[in-house]
């Protein structure tokens, strides 16, 4: 199924009549000057994606930013897709329409990815990522570091595809302690039957960290590796030192996740670089200038952003999902009304005297 179909499916259980406008924006596919993984001899291509969800009455509700890497042979045959979820953000979370929508958006995106996809997440708590000044909005719930790690662990556990997953909290060596520290144990987290979770990372512990760890944009691992290029660290040493870094140390709890989607389908396509444009960057810069500090500013900034989208992108980058109460719910309500004055077969209505 397409991303739109998956999203329609995930949003279908919202009980309130709602119209969602979805803006699925992306840059053109470009070839990277260096491989995603240093020791790889394959080519790396990158597409930058931003998905924004809005309603007419609220404006933007949430957004998802990802970097989509495609690894191919020198002949252009696709070998693997690597997805880095860079930012997830909300504007407001106290409206009935917005509850749980961010998670549904992420699940729909993940379940629509092509075969042979690996997904990476760095969970680090910050008050805002995509929507400027939204941290001051009293209607927005900002998760702390422990709650955010727990939230990601629970969410990725809901992906409906058979998968193998790794998760790791720097500075915590065993899963029981990590579950306690993140609060996931208190929330009764248990691995889904179709996902094989392992605590730790997928990289060989004795390998050189710079050779095997992917170099993502806007990622703590990449920044730390670049700052320590002269140090020949093993993977094991890398994680030990990272636990004391500015981003992952000082009492903060952060989480690294990797999920390999075990799709049975084989990738058969080839890849080709697309003509470069600055359309995506132009809109991104405009979005970063907007203000989302309260309900009025969210709606006004959304309208400004949509005007910008319509002036830059064609209509294929947006679609609409209308959610109506399920017919089953209506039928149940009707059947309850109809059953009020019905007597069972063994009872006789007493005649009034």
UniProtKB/TrEMBL annotation:
Gene Ontology cellular-component annotations: nucleus
Family matches, as PROSITE patterns: RTT109_HAT
Major localization class: nucleus
Enzyme Commission numbers on file: 2.3.1.48
Known catalytic reactions: L-lysyl-[histone] + acetyl-CoA = N(6)-acetyl-L-lysyl-[histone] + CoA + H(+)
The protein's enzyme class: transferase
Keyword flag RNA-binding: no
Keywords assigned by UniProt, alphabetized: Acetylation, DNA damage, Nucleus, Transcription, Transcription regulation, Transferase
Transcription regulation recorded as keyword: yes
InterPro entries: HAT_RTT109-like, Histone_AcTrfase_Rtt109/CBP, Rtt109
Pfam families named among the record's database cross-references: HAT_KAT11
Recorded superkingdom: Eukaryota
GO BP of this protein: DNA damage response; regulation of DNA-templated transcription
GO molecular function annotations of the record: histone H3K56 acetyltransferase activity
Cellular localisation: Nucleus
PANTHER family according to UniProt: ALTERED INHERITANCE OF MITOCHONDRIA PROTEIN 6 (PTHR31571), HISTONE ACETYLTRANSFERASE RTT109 (PTHR31571:SF2)
Protein name (record): histone acetyltransferase
Organism name: Rhizopus oryzae (Mucormycosis agent)
Biological classification of the source: Eukaryota, Fungi, Fungi incertae sedis, Mucoromycota, Mucoromycotina
């Amino acid at each position: 199924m397409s991303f739109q179909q998956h999203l329609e499916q995930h949003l279908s259980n919202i009980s309130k009549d709602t119209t969602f406008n979805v803006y699925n924006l992306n840059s053109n596919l470009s070839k990277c000057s260096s491989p995603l993984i240093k020791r790889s001899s394959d080519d790396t291509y990158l597409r930058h994606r931003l998905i924004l969800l809005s309603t007419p009455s609220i404006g933007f509700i949430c957004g998802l930013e990802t970097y989509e890497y495609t690894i191919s042979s020198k002949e252009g045959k696709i070998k693997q897709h690597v997805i880095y979820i860079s930012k997830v953000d909300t504007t407001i979370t106290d409206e009935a329409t917005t509850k749980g929508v961010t998670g549904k958006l992420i699940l729909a995106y993940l379940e629509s990815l092509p075969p042979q996809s690996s997904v990476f997440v760095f969970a680090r708590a910050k008050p805002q990522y995509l929507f400027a000044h939204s941290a001051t909005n009293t209607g927005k719930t900002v998760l702390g570091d422990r709650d955010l790690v727990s939230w990601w662990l629970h969410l990725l556990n809901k992906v409906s595809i058979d998968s193998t997953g790794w998760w790791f909290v720097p500075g915590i060596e065993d899963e029981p302690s990590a579950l306690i520290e993140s609060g996931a144990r208190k929330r009764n987290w248990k691995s889904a039957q179709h996902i094989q979770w392992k605590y730790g990372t997928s990289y060989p512990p004795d390998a050189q960290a710079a050779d095997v760890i992917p170099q993502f944009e806007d990622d703590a691992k990449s920044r730390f590796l670049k700052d320590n290029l002269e140090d020949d660290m093993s993977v094991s040493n890398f994680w030990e030192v990272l636990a004391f870094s500015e981003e992952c140390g000082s009492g903060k709890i952060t989480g690294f996740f990797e999920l390999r989607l075990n799709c049975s389908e084989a990738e058969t396509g080839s890849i080709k670089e697309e003509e470069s444009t600055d359309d995506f960057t132009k809109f991104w810069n405009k979005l970063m200038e907007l203000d989302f500090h309260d309900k009025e500013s969210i709606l006004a900034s959304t309208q400004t952003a949509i005007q910008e989208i319509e002036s830059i992108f064609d209509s294929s980058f947006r679609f609409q999902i209308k959610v109506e109460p399920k017919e089953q719910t209506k039928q149940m309500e009707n059947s309850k009304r109809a059953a009020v004055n019905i007597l069972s077969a063994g009872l006789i209505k007493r005649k009034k005297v």
